[in-house]
Design goal:
Blueprint lengths: L7 E2 L6 E2 L4 H11 L3 E5 L5 E6 H10 L11 H4 L8 E2 L4 H8 L4 E5 L5 E6 H16 L4
Parallel strand pairs: 2-3, 5-6
Antiparallel strand pairs: 1-7, 3-4, 6-7
């Protein structure tokens, strides 16, 4: 199975630039109701996922909301978390990552962010596959 079948393309999802201010990022997350958003750099490369927890830690360390206008998303990203996969990844690799992440960012061979695969879509894929294998032919 090609993961492109499950891909939610970049132009259909919300993501954030790594040079966006923390305040702007908070506003975007609030507007969309997400708990985490992929972050990309100016070259379009995936650099990490910013989460509610990242924002909370940023708020905890700053003196005022105005300080959040000086802090960039790149300052609060924890890059070791939420790994991405190449577009050529197989379903087993996706399944292993999705156990730890809400979504898996997908990059092309040049490292450019092209979209995400969600936990829901992967679970549905395996559910449909299992159901098809165990449903008698009519």
């Amino acid at each position: 199975m090609n993961l492109l079948y499950l891909l939610r393309p970049k132009d259909e999802i919300t993501y954030i630039g790594s040079r966006t201010t923390v305040r702007q990022g908070l506003e975007r997350m609030r507007a969309h109701g997400f708990t985490a958003i992929p972050a990309i750099n100016d070259d379009g490369e995936y650099v990490g996922t910013v989460s509610e927890g990242d924002f909370l830690w940023a708020l905890y360390g700053e003196q005022s909301v105005r300080d959040l206008e000086k802090l960039m998303i790149s300052d609060i990203l924890r890059t070791k978390r939420d790994k991405s996969v190449l577009v050529s990844a197989d379903m087993e690799e996706l399944l292993l990552l999705i156990m730890e992440q809400n979504f898996v960012p997908v990059t092309d061979d040049r490292g450019k962010f092209i979209g995400i695969v969600t936990r829901r879509d992967i679970i549905k894929y395996f559910y449909d596959k299992e159901r098809k294998e165990h449903t008698p032919d009519e």
